[in-house]
Design a protein that fits this description.
One of its GO terms (molecular function) is hydrolase activity, hydrolyzing N-glycosyl compounds. Its EC number is 1.1.1.193. This is Riboflavin biosynthesis protein PYRR, chloroplastic. It is an enzyme of class 1 (oxidoreductase). Its main location: plastid. By secondary structure, the protein is α/β, with parallel strands linked by helices. It has three domains: about 150 residues, Cytidine Deaminase, domain 2; about 210 residues, Dihydrofolate Reductase, subunit A (3-Layer(aba) Sandwich); about 180 residues, Tetracycline Repressor, domain 2 (Orthogonal Bundle), CATH 1.10.357.40. The protein is about 35% helix and about 15% strand. The strands form four sheets. The chain has a nine-stranded mixed β-sheet with strand order 10-9-8-7-11-6-12-14-13. The protein has a five-stranded mixed β-sheet with strand order 2-1-3-4-5. The protein has a two-stranded parallel ribbon with strand order 15-18. Strand 9, helix 9 and strand 10 form a beta-alpha-beta unit. The longest helix is centred in the first third of the chain and has 31 residues. The protein is flat and about 75 Å long.
C-alpha cells in the first residue's frame, strides 16, 4: 500500500503552505502592478528632455486597474493626479502603485495630496526618490495622513519583488547614476561588423547596421539630452545627429575636438533645427572659433580637454543623459575616465577585415584578458539581421551613504551622542541645507596679509584662490585674481582644480597642512556675519552633518561613507563653538542680573 507524504502532513504544515502560496500570489500581483507603473513611466521618453520618470497605477481591492498615468515632462500634471482623475470614485479604498516616490520638485505636494484626497488607503512604492533632499519625504507625508505605505525591498521582500524593483531602478537609471557620480548618465553606442570593425580601412562606414538598427539609434538619441562625437567622426562621416523620430525632443549636439582640426562646412554647423556645442582645448584655432561663433555654434574651452571634465561641465549645466556616438579614439579615454555607464553594441552579420580598419574602442592599456571590463545585466536582442548587445559597465549604485564612526564625531562635537543622532546631508545649494555648501552665494570679507579686507563672492572662491596665495610667481598671482573674479563658485572651483592639475608647481608648498585652516577661517566668517545662517547651523545641534559628495573623499562623506567628511566636521566644530559662546553669553547675563 502506497502513502503520500501529504497524507501525514500536520495542520500547521498545511497552513504554512497555504500562507506561503497566498504570500507569493500577493507578491505576484504587487510586482505586476509595479512593473506596469515602471513601463508607463517610460512613455514620455523621446518626446521631452530627459527627466525623472514617474508612473502610477491605481488598482481596486478586486484587482481591477481603475486608472493610470505618467509624467510627460517636468512641470506638467503629475502621474498620480492623472491616475486619480482616471479612476474617479474607484479610488476609495484602492491601492496606488508608484515606480518611484513622488517628488518632481522640492516643496511640491500635489501628488501626495491627490492620493490622500481621493481616498487611496494604501500606496506601494518601487524606490525612494534618488535625490537625498526628496528621499522619504512623500513616504513620511503619506504615512502621516494614515495611508499604509509599503516600499519594495524594505517592507516587501521576495524574489518576485526583486524583479519588480529592478524595473524601477532601470527606468530611472539616468537619474540614479547622475545623482551618485555627479556626471550625466552616459551611454556608449556603436555598430560593428562580426569581426569587430566600425569602418573599412578607407574609413567608409555607411552602412554597417540595418535600417531597423538605425531606427533604434534614433530612439536612443531621443532619450538623451545630448549626443557627443569626436573630430574624426565629423571629418569622416559629416553626421547630422538628429533624432528623426517624427517630432518631439531634439538633443543637443556636442563635438569634442582638442585641436579644432574640423571642416569649415559641416552639417553640424547648421543650427537652424538643433543647437551644436563644440568643446575644445583653450586657445585652439581662435580664427576657427570665430567662424563657428558667426554660425551660432557655441564654443566652450577647457584648460585640459578630457571626458571627465567635459562631463562635469555638462552636469553643471543640468544634463541628465548623454549618448556617445564617437569612434574608438574618444571612446577609450571616456571609458578609462569612468564616465561611461552603459554600452549598446549593434553587431552586424558582416565581415570586412582589414588590418588598419578601426575598432569601436581604442587603447585601454590592458595586456591580459583578465583585465577586460565585464558588462553587467547583459541583454541580447535581435534587431532585423543584427544582434543588439547591451549592458552596464558600472552597477546601479546604492545612493544611501553609510557614515562611519559616530564616536569620532562625538569627540569633535559633544552635542552628538553615539546613540541618539540623526544625519543631515547637504551638497548642492538647492538642498534644504544647501547654505552649508561652499558654493552658496554668500560673499565674505577676509583680511589679507597686508591687513586689507577683501570681498570674496563665496567660500569656494576664497578657498580655491588660496591654493596660490603667497607663491612668488606672477602666474600664481594671476591665478588668484582670476579665481577671485570668477562669475560663479562652480567656475572658481573648476579653475582652481584645473590649474592645480595642470601646474602643480604653482601650488603653495604648505597647502596640504594649511588647507583645513583656510577653510575653517572662511566658514567661521560666513556663519558669523549672516545671522540666518548661524541660526540654521545651530538648529542642527545633535545631528551629524555630512557633505554628501560621492567623489570628494576628503571634504565629503564619499559614495559609501568612506570619505573623511572634513567639511561636515568643520561645520560641527563651528556649531559647538557657537553654542559654547551662546552659553557663556547667557551665563554673563545671569551674573549681571
Amino acid at each position: 500500500m502506497a502513502f503520500s507524504l501529504g497524507a501525514f502532513a500536520s495542520p500547521v504544515m498545511c497552513m504554512a503552505t497555504i500562507t506561503t502560496t497566498n504570500h507569493n500570489n500577493s507578491h505576484a500581483f504587487e510586482a505586476a502592478y509595479i512593473k506596469r507603473a515602471a513601463d508607463i513611466a517610460d512613455k514620455s521618453a523621446g518626446f521631452t528632455s530627459p527627466h525623472p520618470n514617474f508612473g502610477c497605477v491605481i488598482a481596486t481591492a478586486a484587482g481591477k486597474v481603475a486608472g493610470e498615468g505618467y509624467l510627460y515632462a517636468q512641470g506638467t500634471k503629475p502621474a498620480e493626479v492623472q491616475a486619480v482623475e482616471a479612476a474617479g470614485e474607484l479610488c476609495r479604498g484602492a491601492t496606488a502603485y508608484l515606480n518611484m516616490e513622488p517628488g518632481d520638485c522640492h516643496g511640491d505636494h500635489t501628488a501626495v495630496s491627490a492620493l490622500v484626497k481621493a481616498g487611496i488607503t494604501r500606496v506601494v512604492v518601487g524606490i525612494r526618490h534618488p535625490l537625498r533632499h526628496l528621499r522619504g519625504n512623500a513616504v513620511r507625508a503619506l504615512r502621516s495622513e494614515g495611508v499604509n505605505v509599503d516600499v519594495l525591498g524594505e517592507d516587501l521582500q521576495s524574489k518576485i519583488i526583486e524583479d519588480a524593483l529592478k524595473s524601477c531602478l532601470l527606468v530611472n537609471a539616468p537619474l540614479i547614476y547622475r545623482t551618485a557620480s555627479r556626471v550625466p548618465f552616459s551611454v556608449l553606442k556603436y555598430a560593428m561588423t562580426l569581426d569587430g570593425k566600425i569602418a573599412a580601412s578607407s574609413g567608409h562606414a555607411s552602412w554597417i547596421s540595418s535600417k531597423k538598427s538605425r531606427s533604434r539609434v534614433f530612439e536612443l538619441r531621443g532619450r538623451s539630452d545630448a549626443i557627443i562625437v569626436g573630430g574624426n567622426t565629423v571629418r569622416r562621416d559629416n553626421p547630422r545627429l538628429t533624432a528623426r523620430h517624427g517630432g518631439g525632443h531634439f538633443p543637443m549636439r556636442i563635438v569634442m575636438s582638442q585641436t579644432l582640426n574640423l571642416p569649415e562646412i559641416a552639417n553640424l554647423w547648421d543650427i537652424s533645427d538643433v543647437p551644436t556645442i563644440v568643446v575644445t582645448q583653450r586657445g585652439a584655432r581662435k580664427s576657427f572659433q570665430k567662424l563657428l561663433a558667426s554660425k551660432g555654434v557655441e564654443v566652450v574651452e577647457f584648460d585640459i580637454l578630457n571626458p571627465r571634465d567635459v562631463m562635469e561641465y555638462f552636469y553643471d549645466r543640468g544634463y541628465l543623459s548623454i549618448l556617445w556616438e564617437c569612434g574608438g579614439t574618444l571612446a577609450a579615454p571616456a571609458i578609462s575616465s569612468g564616465v561611461i555607464h552603459k554600452v549598446f553594441a549593434f553587431v552586424a552579420p558582416k565581415i570586412i577585415g582589414g588590418k588598419s580598419a578601426p575598432s569601436p574602442v581604442g587603447e585601454l592599456g590592458m595586456v591580459e584578458m583578465s583585465q577586460a571590463l565585464n558588462l553587467i545585466d547583459v541583454c541580447y536582442e535581435q534587431v532585423g539581421p543584427d544582434m543588439l548587445i547591451s549592458g552596464f559597465l558600472q552597477p546601479i549604485p546604492d545612493l544611501t551613504p553609510i557614515i562611519p564612526s559616530v564616536d569620532e564625531t562625538s569627540a569633535i562635537d559633544p552635542t552628538v551622542t553615539p546613540y541618539e543622532s540623526s544625519i543631515i546631508f547637504f551638497y548642492k545649494t538647492w538642498d534644504p541645507y544647501g547654505a552649508f555648501s561652499n558654493f552658496s552665494p554668500h560673499p565674505i570679507q577676509m583680511q589679507d596679509d597686508s591687513g586689507n579686507y577683501l570681498t570674496w563672492s563665496s567660500v569656494e572662491h576664497y578657498y580655491q584662490a588660496h591654493k596660490f596665495v603667497g607663491v612668488n610667481d606672477p602666474v600664481a598671482r594671476d591665478c588668484v585674481e582670476g579665481i577671485k573674479s570668477a562669475k560663479s563658485p562652480e567656475e572658481a572651483a573648476r579653475m582652481g582644480r584645473t590649474i592645480q592639475r595642470q601646474h602643480p608647481d604653482l601650488i603653495r608648498p604648505d597647502w596640504e597642512t594649511v588647507k583645513i585652516d583656510v577653510m575653517y577661517r572662511a566658514l567661521k566668517c560666513k556663519f558669523s556675519i549672516y545671522p540666518h545662517l548661524n541660526s540654521m547651523l545651530l538648529s542642527t545641534a545633535g545631528s551629524v552633518l555630512v557633505e554628501a559628495s560621492p567623489h570628494d573623499l576628503f571634504w565629503g562623506g564619499g559614495r559609501e561613507g568612506e570619505g573623511l567628511n572634513y567639511l561636515g566636521r568643520l561645520l560641527m566644530q563651528l556649531r559647538s563653538e557657537f553654542l559654547g559662546e551662546s552659553s557663556m553669553s547667557n551665563e554673563s547675563s545671569c551674573l549681571a542680573l
